[in-house]
Amino acid sequence: MTAVTVPVPTMPRRRKDPTEIRDPEGAEKKVLLAAPRGYCAGVDRAVIAVERALEHYGAPVYVRKEIVHNRHVVETLSERGAIFVEETAQVPQGARVVFSAHGVSPQVHQEAADLELRTIDATCPLVTKVHREAVRFAKQGYSILLVGHAGHEEVEGTMGEAPEAITLVQNPEEARTVELPETDKLVWISQTTLSVDETMETVGILRERFPALTDPPSDDICYATQNRQVAVKKVAPAADLVLVVGSANSSNSVRLVEVALEHGAKAAHRVDFAREVDEEWFHDVATVGVTSGASVPDTLVQDLLRLLADYGYHEVEEVRTAEEDLMFSLPSELRKDLKAAGLATSNKPGGADREHELR
């Protein structure tokens, strides 16, 4: 007789009742909600590009890599007919493919051309700016130091623009040991989603070792990454606990946890969803700081706020450190096809501001 194994469904973890959580002594419970938080202009543009592509061309629409680093976004778009692949070769010849907000190398563009793919390039314009810097500096004979994380799609795309000229430096430790040929033409550029503080520490070490090091013409770390870190720095000193909504492969979300701890938060955790919060974290906690990475729809933050309210954190105080009104137009390939079909080419429904969440 052949044995048959019947899988046992995973039982949901029983949440502790709010009465089982120790309240802080002599302090009222509240939430400090950091702002800005959530979607940046580049993420908003990329997600809408996939949505509009599905509406206009119909499913399937292929997407190389995750369109943005967020589980909820990827799962939601998959349900609508987007097919996410790791490599260009996995896309059927002649199919339509969207390149993610993190950008791709010239090699990937060539692979797509060889397969006669119809491409929609949703690379964030701020990432494109770094790519152009790399190409320009390489043509001018510079050795380029790229501050970033090995394996990140954005870094792979940037290095692919001038592989013979770029050396990757991941952190201050590598800045102390990296070896370079002697040259007076040396410049640094960076991944857009890094910790501002750690990047400047890394650059400071490089500048001490290589006095000829030149700065890029403008800051490469994107405005949204900086704004979210500044807001967390404001919240952290007053927070017993900081919760960051964001995925593990989201560089800027991971950095927000580190920034919170570095600037005074007693504890900090990253979660994809409110259901991942361990209510044990609430013991003796009066003030909870809340923020989210630049690829997180606000609906996930609202889920977290509802959970916090269940545990007595009803008062929510927004801590705003900047206003953001930047908007990027849809990728040119998509705009062209929408215009030819007589459809609106704005990335805002009806021209109105789009809520920062998936619909």
UniProtKB/TrEMBL annotation:
Entry protein name: 4-hydroxy-3-methylbut-2-enyl diphosphate reductase
Matches recorded under CDD domains: lytB_ispH (cd13944)
One Pfam family this sequence matches: LYTB
Active site, renumbered: 154
Matching NCBIfam families: ispH_lytB (TIGR00216), PRK01045.1-3 (NF002189), PRK01045.1-4 (NF002190)
Binding site for [4Fe-4S] cluster: 40, 124, 222
PANTHER family tied to this protein: 4-HYDROXY-3-METHYLBUT-2-ENYL DIPHOSPHATE REDUCTASE
Catalytic activity: isopentenyl diphosphate + 2 oxidized [2Fe-2S]-[ferredoxin] + H2O = (2E)-4-hydroxy-3-methylbut-2-enyl diphosphate + 2 reduced [2Fe-2S]-[ferredoxin] + 2 H(+); dimethylallyl diphosphate + 2 oxidized [2Fe-2S]-[ferredoxin] + H2O = (2E)-4-hydroxy-3-methylbut-2-enyl diphosphate + 2 reduced [2Fe-2S]-[ferredoxin] + 2 H(+)
Function (record text): Catalyzes the conversion of 1-hydroxy-2-methyl-2-(E)-butenyl 4-diphosphate (HMBPP) into a mixture of isopentenyl diphosphate (IPP) and dimethylallyl diphosphate (DMAPP). Acts in the terminal step of the DOXP/MEP pathway for isoprenoid precursor biosynthesis.
Listed pathway(s): Isoprenoid biosynthesis; isopentenyl diphosphate biosynthesis via DXP pathway; isopentenyl diphosphate from 1-deoxy-D-xylulose 5-phosphate: step 6/6; Isoprenoid biosynthesis; dimethylallyl diphosphate biosynthesis; dimethylallyl diphosphate from (2E)-4-hydroxy-3-methylbutenyl diphosphate: step 1/1
Residue ranges of the region described as Disordered: 1-25, 340-359
Family: Belongs to the IspH family.
Annotated keywords: 4Fe-4S, Iron, Iron-sulfur, Isoprene biosynthesis, Metal-binding, Oxidoreductase
Cofactor: [4Fe-4S] cluster
UniProt-annotated binding residues for isopentenyl diphosphate: 69, 102, 152, 250-252, 295
Residues reported in the UniProt entry to bind dimethylallyl diphosphate: 69, 102, 152, 250-252, 295
Co-factor note (free text): Binds 1 [4Fe-4S] cluster per subunit.
Residues binding (2E)-4-hydroxy-3-methylbut-2-enyl diphosphate, per UniProt: 69, 102, 152, 192, 250-252, 295
Gene, per the UniProt record: ispH
Enzyme nomenclature, EC number: 1.17.7.4
